[in-house]
Amino acid sequence: MSDALINGLAGAGGGIIAQLITYPLQTVNTRQQTERDPKKDQKNLGTLDQMCQVVKHEGWERLYGGLMPSLVGTAASQGVYYYFYQIFRSKAEAAALKQKKIGVGDGSVGMLSSLLVAALSGCVNVLLTNPIWVVVTRMQTHRKELKKATPGHDLSVATEQTILSAAEPPPYGTIHVIQEVYGEAGVWGFWNGVLPTLVMVSNPSIQFMLYEAMLSRLKRRRALSNKSSDGVTALEIFLLGALAKLGATVVTYPLLVVKARLQARQVKTKDKRHHYEGTWDAIVKMVRYEGFYGFYNGMSTKIVQSVLAAAVLFMVKEELVKGARFLLAKDAANTAKARPL
Question: Distance (Å, rounded) from C-alpha 204 to C-alpha 206?
């Protein structure tokens, strides 16, 4: 099994676990990002309060709306990203060693090369998996709307519950969303928001650049202190992943909001604020009608969710890679012993 495949599978596994742990936070954050006209009382609600509101009015299952396609998307995204990242990284390392032989550089991959490797991997990932995230965003932002009794009518609790139950819309499932997106814009509708998403590859690029730099520095310090350079603990990986993601999220969050707005269902009303024709139109309308504050809706929630998810992902991924390499090495040793002399 190639090292690229090991990293790809480990990345997919780590991504799934991180997604399961942080998904309710992600759902609330996506709603915050796509809210055009947040009410004053909603602005004052904290993340946990908003989660409780969703459970109270729509049921706890809405916190996990779109979970299945999201898990598929996470596995695909992390698998594709880590697979191509390892391939491009190996090529960059080979190029660096080649340069060292002719007297240029020290043979290590520089910060710029690391950034380029992460960016290329991110672009491949975005182009292949964007349709999945369009579906996930639609399902996360879908709200269960029930018809209320007409004001002034005195209905019993039982009668009101009957009306609410009868007014419930059909399940908003994956097939429904796919048909909806295709009906609105055809095949290209599944690539809504792809432009800001491609620009957003700077997020994992910055994240991995910071992560690799901090990890390399930590290993060098361990080597200088006569400790094993591979003796980085799971907790240290967790913290490095969290710090790297924090830095990347603060820089690129406005792009994430624009992407979510474009991928969410467009509300077709006379109010032009609720409909975006494209990336530039979304940016202009957000600045005009919401100010720069609109680009940072739900940022605190996103920082908690993304930092926690990234930290878990890095920790689990590194442990899975170590375990896979250990098992492969053990298997190779057993095979060598079993061969006749």
Answer: 5
Burial of residue 78 (number of CB atoms within 10 Å: 0-12, 13-18, 19+)? buried
Q: Angle formed by the axes of helices 3-34 and 111-141, to 10°? A: 50
| Structural domain count, the chain | 1
The whole domain housing 149 covers 3-338
* % pLDDT > 90, the chain: 0
Nearest-10 Cα torsion for 27, 33, 34, 39: 100
d(CA 66, CA 141): 9
Map 263-280 to HEC letters: HCCCCCCCCHHHCCCCHH
* 170: helix, strand or coil: coil
Residue 139: which CATH number?
1.50.40.10
205 residue type, one letter: S
Q: How far apart are CA 45 and CA 28, in angstroms?
A: 12
Spatial separation of the C-alpha atoms in residues 61 and 171, rounded to whole Å: 12
The first and second tokens of residue 12, run together, are 């997919």
Instruction: For 149-207, write each residue's pLDDT tens digit.
Output: 444 444 444 444 443 344 445 566 788 888 888 888 888 888 888 888 888 777 766 77
CB-CB contact of 124 with 41 (8 Å) = no
Residues 217 and 230: beta-carbon distance below 8 Å: no
